[in-house]
Amino acid sequence: MNAAGLAPARAFALLGHEHRVDILRALLDASRDGVETPIPFARLFERTEIDVSSQFSYHLDELTGQFVRDTDDGYELRYAGWKVATAILAGTYNERAEFGPTEIAGVCPHCGGETLAASYEAEWLTVSCRGCESRLVRYPIPPGVVQSRSVPEILQAFDRYVRSHMLRARGGVCPACLGVMELETHAPDNDSLATGVCRRCGNRLYPPVGLFLRDHETIPWFRREFDGNESVPFWELGWCVTDDAATVTETDPWRCRLEIPANEATLALSLGEGLTVRSATVEA
């Protein structure tokens, strides 16, 4: 389904004035503050830092249609306006932040040492082990995540952020552009056993098979029943940071066995193409 729209350059050009950004943020802040929307012209003007009503009216008109909706009751954000405003708050386009390397709590799944460190640079967050010098995860995340949070809070948000991306990808939705993402499975001699590929933007994800499946309904249940510590961040789980726990048993059609240990039990998942879970068995 297609509809007429603006060329990308024209759409971004509409944002090229501080007053227009001010208007978008005022509309977003109104929603956050519980103000009833749509917002009448005069009330929205009061929520901005624009001094002259005619300037406010001009820039509001420029945004209306593409980023702002004009209704009989006032103005409200369109989805495009909401995405721009929230991206600004996240610091996606204009903020910079960094920290570390700094020691963090946790146990390395490779060497068992409590020698983990986290760092954030150039919009990538990395967790590694200083003991065995292994990198457990490196993934991009907006600067807004690391602002106004302590390091433990950042890592908690990061854990959920990455897992939500894997959940989307396994559901066929690209975490970047929301286009169709397909999961391609590979032979054992490939660098990765599974790759998420977006057919629209070309975004590619190369996580271990276990990370793709971290929040499959069977796994949280198994970890609650047999481990009792389901809240461990994914980078402390060996089956989420390498493919060592995954064994390709057939290539045509593709079949894989993923083993997830917890105390004296093991959850064995039989996987098919697209990482579909064909069966799940608890083995003592």
Automatic annotation (TrEMBL):
It holds the Pfam family DUF7351. Gene3D superfamilies: Winged helix-like DNA-binding domain superfamily/Winged helix DNA-binding domain. This is ArsR family transcriptional regulator. InterPro entries: DUF7347, DUF7351, WH-like_DNA-bd_sf. Residues 8-88 form the DUF7347 domain. Residues 106-277 form the DUF7351 domain.
